[in-house]
Amino acid sequence: MFDTLAEGVVVQDTDGTVRDFNAPALALLGVTAEELRERAPLDPHWRALWDNGTPLHVFERPLRTILQVVHEHGRLTIGVRGRDGTTRWLRIATHVVYDDESGAETIVSTIADVTAQREAELQNAHYREIIDTLNASYHIVEESPIGMCSVDVEGNVLRGNMAFLTLGGAEATSIFQLIPEDDRAQLREELARLMDGRTPSVRIETRMQQPTGATIWCEITAVAMRAGLPDAAILLLINDVTERRRREARLRQLAERDPLTGVHNRRSFIHVLRERLGALDRNRRAGTDWILMLIDLDGFKEVNDTLGHAGGDALLIAVAGGIRDRTRVEDTVGRLGGDEFAVLLQSRSGTDAGAIGDEMIARITGAARSVAGAPAVTASIGIVHLRAGREPEEILAAADRAMYEAKHAGKARCVDAGAVLSRQ
After folding, report:
1. What's the CATH number for 120-244?
2. Mind giving me the DSSP string for 119-170?
């Protein structure tokens, strides 16, 4: 699967042992499979540079040292000098993937060639001088792959190169025409800081609307310019970072989602629950109630015994789909492990949580029937109403007790944790 990706991928255990990698990783790092696994870690041909150009000595075990630093800081740019003497600059990012079943952690590192981007960033440092001598260097500005424009303090475009016209269109007279309304305040504030002298430059990421109607993500770097331009002019350097953000979103999904069903994994679900509990005091809307449903399937063992693990997986996928069909965009569905699911959903005042639970059981039962040959499967549900001042562990424990009460009462039913507490 990794070999279909353009980026290099290296998979490690937390102790640094390399478990898997793809061909692009070997090509980008300029090493063999044996060198990557550090069977020959002192190969003098393996030469790396830190971001500041300082060599990484061969006796520092380059691969392990670099990947350890990336694991600690999330992202790192290094240079790799090839056997032909050329240097390729690589951006390495890591994400920790959690296995909810075993509790194991795996470090997935992605490697991208940013040589061209680094060269462009180095060029940016000289753009001030280029603008000061605009007539002599006009062709450099016009042919730059980076969108460049000068604007006044109100954001009116004074001049732009071809890359900027490609991004924003020839009709753009103000940079704020291209920025969605929700993002304009941030850009205005940053430009004000720049012109007040509080910072020599600013850099933000924002959305930009193209003439075609498409919305892209851009990184905008702004520098105050005066010499050779109208007073209080600002130089903007605009990079399209849409694809980079897509890659980062895919990696976040790997870290937050259950790989089988696509719903939140246990760690991510508890994070959402903690945020919701923390927001109850600060931002609670009148007439709104948040409830948590802890769902345990009845009869799932028989599915595995009858259809095997592949059949069990198919049923879990179908059940997750049935649960999502009952929820709305503001609700959160998670798989806590095995055949146990949880739902954090919003209900209006007057809505019976038990009725919602009964409907959820019906959806789950129907979804299970869609798996050919599967024995009958129902669900037992424990319900808890969220209250301020509670911890996620307390909420889940209360829901767990209510869920087992439902099982002891005959299964295929839901029990409200409040009713259980009132009897104790």
Report:
1. 3.30.450.20
2. HHHHHHTTHHHHHHTTTTTHHHHHH-SSEEEEE-TT-BEEEE-HHHHHHH-T
